[in-house]
Write a structure and sequence with these properties.
This protein folds into two domains: 4-178, Aldolase class I (TIM Barrel); 199-244, no CATH class. The protein has nine helices and eight strands. It has helices at residues 22-30, 45-50, 57-69, 88-101, 123-127, 129-148, 179-186, 219-223, 229-244, and strands spanning 11-15, 35-38, 74-81, 105-110, 152-157, 168-172, 199-203, 210-214.
């Protein structure tokens, strides 16, 4: 049993603003959560509808205010540059409005087309020179605005199939950096993960050996294993790693 009071960082991925309620925030706060992510991607309602997000900018503001009232110490907000239908003027307006709210953490992503995305067919959108230029301006503006507002960059990474091969950057007000993000990027922290699609990662003391354990990818597979064969496999691999490698 883990005592939440002993945890240095306890994050809940709140996700879409329309899924966040006062009751959820109250419960996670009572159980020691000190960081929550509320991810709007953009504050342009037309763009949100175009990309299939089931929330509005008003719902984001409502969720953000509820998180503040729930006394969650650190709020992170994710934004995405390069969304279909959004140019520099719209994205820069979103940046300005979000920074006015002063979330402790800001994460700026560049659009990455995923195979399962509803707009995966819009690769022409990503390949256009205009989109390259607009998205590059958006990324530059987001980073400059964050720095001018007192945020510091604390982690960076790239994904496949991003517009113009641009980066994702996490910013934080000093002293509020997301430790999990840093440890994940550096691959220096053992991570135990549960649920469909989860990947546990065990790191040796010297950092030279990493063992990964994959859960079932899909929920129906995960739920169809009542005897917990994957849990048994995870337990055996974990014991072997810590007895013989760690």
């Amino acid at each position: 049993r883990i005592d939440p009071a002993t945890l240095e960082e306890f994050t809940v991925e709140g996700g879409r603003p329309d899924t966040i309620t006062e009751e959820k925030l109250r419960i996670i706060h009572e159980h020691g959560v000190n960081r929550v992510s509320i991810n709007t991607q953009t504050l342009n309602d037309d763009v949100l509808e175009l990309v299939g997000r089931k929330h509005t900018s008003a719902e984001f503001y409502r969720a953000f205010e509820m998180a503040r009232k729930a006394n969650i110490p650190i709020i992170n907000t994710d934004l995405i540059a390069g969304l279909p239908g959004e140019g520099f003027c719209s994205f820069s307006d979103t940046i300005d409005r979000i920074i006015e709210l002063r979330p402790e953490n800001l994460t700026f992503h560049t659009l990455a087309i995923k195979n399962a995305a509803d707009f995966a067919q819009q690769k022409d959108h990503m390949k256009s020179m205009h989109m390259f230029s607009e998205t590059s301006k958006c990324v530059d503006y987001s980073q400059l605005s964050a720095k001018n507002a007192g945020y510091i960059p604390y982690y960076i990474y790239r994904q496949k199939n991003t517009v113009n091969n641009l980066e994702n950057v996490g910013f934080a007000l000093p002293g509020t950096e997301g430790l999990y993000n840093i440890y994940m990027m550096e691959e220096i922290q053992t991570i135990f993960a549960v649920g469909a699609g989860a990947v546990s990662k065990m790191v040796s003391r010297d950092g030279k050996s990493i063992e990964r354990i994959f859960e079932y990818k899909y929920p129906y597979e995960y739920l169809a294993d009542p005897d917990g064969m994957k849990n048994k496999e995870k337990r055996e691999k974990s014991l072997h790693f810590y007895h013989n490698i760690w």
